[in-house]
Request: fold
Amino acid sequence: MDRAQSKILFAEAQALIPGGVNSPVRAFGSVGGDPVFMTRAKGAWLTDADGNRYIDFIGSWGPMILGHAHPDVTAAIEQAARKSTSFGTPTEAESRLAQLVIDRVPSVELIRFVNSGTEATMSAIRLARGYTGRSKIVKFEGCYHGHGDSFLIKAGSGALTLGVPSSPGVPAAIAGETLNATFNDLASVEALFGQYPDDIAAVIVEPIAGNMGCIPGGKDFLKGLQSLCNRFGAILIFDEVMTGFRVHPAGAQGLYGIKPDLSTFGKIIGGGLPVGAYGGKKEIMEQVAPVGPVYQAGTLSGNPLAMAAGIATLTYCDGALYDRLESLGARFEAAITGLGAPLTINRVGSMFTLFMTQEPVTGFSGVLACDTETFARFFHFALDRGVYLPPSQYEAAFISGAHTEAELMKLVDTVRDFYR
Ligand code: KE4
Reply:
């Protein structure tokens, strides 16, 4: 495929922006080659600066569950924009989106909107620390919760992709308050509570990991986390920035039947516009300013365009959509498995990862055993055939409501041809 215009745009961007990208994982660091500059998208299809078309399996890293340029989402944004793009005052739309989330997620009694998933998780752990008076947090190696200082210790997603899971620039004093446990290994968490019985403010977990590739949390593991937090007085935070409204109408917590103390959201609730949120038990959320002393603020929090896009998107996130995504995803998974190719697929609903290993991938060690060189070759093999996958073995791919069987079978055919 000719991507001359993307190359020109990339060279220009590199002179202006570090790495030519505004988020490292977009830079093709682990798959090689130059990133592709997109100019438009519709439904399940992307179009790049050279006019090449691709079936989209990134979905903007999760938000585009309805597919691109859904007419009602676009119309809602246009209508809101005509009334101004921001007021800096409360608006009714914020309550409308808050109500939609609270109605769907039983554990959320109060919610605060912010501008990104990172802001949501940063705020949630500050709240947990303020509420408990404790300073340590437990996260899991390979999980990613955004680029807040407390999380960039053995993190997943772009940090892992670029080989810097623990970032320079995070002061030792902050890094020292973050304890890393092993995903799907409850004993590793019990050991930390045994070591710090009175110091852990929160355990934050992706209930279905998406940032070391897609790895479902075991139900006993997640319920065990809840029991440990209850026993030791720590806050259980489900980071549902990716899984929220992705895998179930009530997110992963709806799928597992677990009610965490706090949850974080992002991506889908903004329909592609910048939104994050944190919410949960009223007695905890009432510690947030201006009701309580835990401070958190944002010029554009609750932005009217983002609220409009989120409301329009969630309106379509109904049972019929999730049933369709599950049915499509299950047929896709069966077709991939049926190829007998030397890879492993993990899937939950409409999020999945093709791992370049023949072993089951149930945790971080399984991910590290993957052949990332083969993944890089497969990524470009697919790209040149009009299939756009996440440019990293350590990411989840996404199916949208705009995908049909034909688009998914194109990926199946691409896998078959790659291993032929
Ligand atoms: P943002 O700050 O990127 O909106 O959200 C951070 C975040 C928090 N929690 C989870 C579970 C997440 O998946 C994310 C962000 N996900 C990555 C994709 N793996 C964002 C893509 C990127 O960094 O460009």
Q: What stands out?
A: The two ends are 21 Å apart (CA to CA). The domain at 4-65+318-418 is CATH 3.90.1150.10 (Aspartate Aminotransferase, domain 1). Residues 23, 25, 61, 116-118, 121, 144-146, 157-158, 206, 210-211, 239, 241-242, 266, 276, 395 surround KE4 (CB under 6 Å).
